[in-house]
C-alpha cells in the first residue's frame, strides 16, 4: 500500500544523488533493490517538479539504509544526505526567495533564521504533500520544526526517532540562513515511535 502522498521528482532526485554521494553507487544499488525500487538504479526520477514520488517509497529507502547500516550508522549517513540535499536544493529552488532578507530585519540574526525556516517550511508544503510548521521557542536561537505528514517515516515503526534526513536538512538550512553559524537538530519525537508528529528542535551550538 502506497501513501498517495508525494514529493516532487526533482527533490527526490537531489536527495538520492546526495545519498549516493555519502554511500557510493554500489550502496545505492543495494538500497534500491532491498527497497523493491530497483528501477531507480537505472534511472532516477526526472528533472521536473511533478509530485510523483510516493512518501512510502521515500521512507522505505531510509528504512533499508537503517537495516543495512544500523541505527547509529544510518542516522549519520542520512543526516549527511539531508545536509547535501539542502545545499543542492537551494541552488536550484528559488535561492533568492528563501534566503533574501526581510525588509528591515537585516541580513542575519536569529529573527531572520526563523523567517527563512518558515519560508522553507512553506516551500516544502507547497511543492510536496509534507506538512510542516516552525516556531521560535522561549530559549534564544532555538526553534521547533514540526512535521505533521512526514515523508521520512511514513509507514515505519521504531522505538527511536528515524527522521535523520530532516535533522541534517534543517541543520544545514539554519546554518545557511544564519550566515554560517552551526546549529544542531535533534528529533525529539517521531511518528515512527507513535508520536502525533515528528518534532525537531533546531538550536545554535
Ligand atoms: Zn518522521
Summarize the structure.
It is built from 5 helices and 6 strands, in the order E-H-E-H-H-H-E-E-H-E-E. It has 205 residues and is α+β, with helices and mostly antiparallel strands.
Features:
single chain; 205 residues; alpha+beta; H-NOX domain; four-stranded antiparallel sheet; two-stranded antiparallel sheet; globular; binds zinc ion
Can you tell me about this structure?
By secondary structure, the protein is α+β, with helices and mostly antiparallel strands. It has one domain: H-NOX domain (Alpha-Beta Complex). It has 5 helices and 6 strands; from the N terminus they run βαβαααββαββ. The longest helix is centred in the middle third of the chain and has 38 residues. The model has no long low-confidence stretch (mean pLDDT 92). Bound molecules: zinc ion (ZN). Zinc ion binds next to loops.
List the helices and strands and how they pair.
Elements lengths: L5 E3 H26 L16 E4 H38 L2 H5 L10 H18 L3 E6 L5 E8 L14 H14 L5 E7 L8 E7 L1
Antiparallel strand pairs: 1-2, 3-4, 4-6, 5-6
Helix pairs in contact: 1-2, 2-5, 4-5
The structure holds zinc ion (ZN).
Amino acid at each position: 500500500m502506497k501513501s498517495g502522498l508525494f514529493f516532487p521528482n526533482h527533490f527526490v532526485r537531489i536527495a538520492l544523488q546526495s545519498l549516493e554521494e555519502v554511500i557510493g553507487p554500489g550502496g545505492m544499488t543495494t538500497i534500491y533493490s532491498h527497497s523493491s525500487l530497483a528501477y531507480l538504479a537505472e534511472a532516477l526520477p526526472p528533472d521536473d517538479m511533478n509530485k510523483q514520488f510516493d512518501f512510502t517509497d521515500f521512507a522505505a529507502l531510509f528504512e533499508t539504509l537503517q537495516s543495512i547500516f544500523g541505527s547509529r550508522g544510518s542516522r549519520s549517513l542520512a543526516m549527511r544526505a539531508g545536509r547535501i540535499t539542502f545545499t543542492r536544493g537551494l541552488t536550484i529552488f528559488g535561492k533568492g526567495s528563501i534566503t533574501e532578507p526581510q525588509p528591515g530585519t537585516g541580513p542575519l540574526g536569529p529573527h531572520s533564521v526563523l523567517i527563512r525556516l518558515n519560508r522553507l517550511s512553506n516551500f516544502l508544503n507547497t511543492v510536496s504533500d509534507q506538512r510542516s510548521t516552525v516556531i521560535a521557542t522561549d530559549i534564544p536561537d532555538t526553534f521547533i520544526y514540526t512535521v505533521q505528514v512526514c515523508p521520512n517515516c511514513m509507514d515505519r515503526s521504531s522505538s527511536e526517532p528515524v527522521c535523520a534526513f530532516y535533522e541534517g536538512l534543517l541543520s544545514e538550512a539554519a546554518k545557511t540562513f544564519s550566515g554560517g553559524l552551526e546549529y544542531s537538530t535533534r528529533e525529539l519525537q517521531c511518528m515512527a515511535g507513535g508520536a502525533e508528529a515528528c518534532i525537531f528542535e533546531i538550536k545554535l551550538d
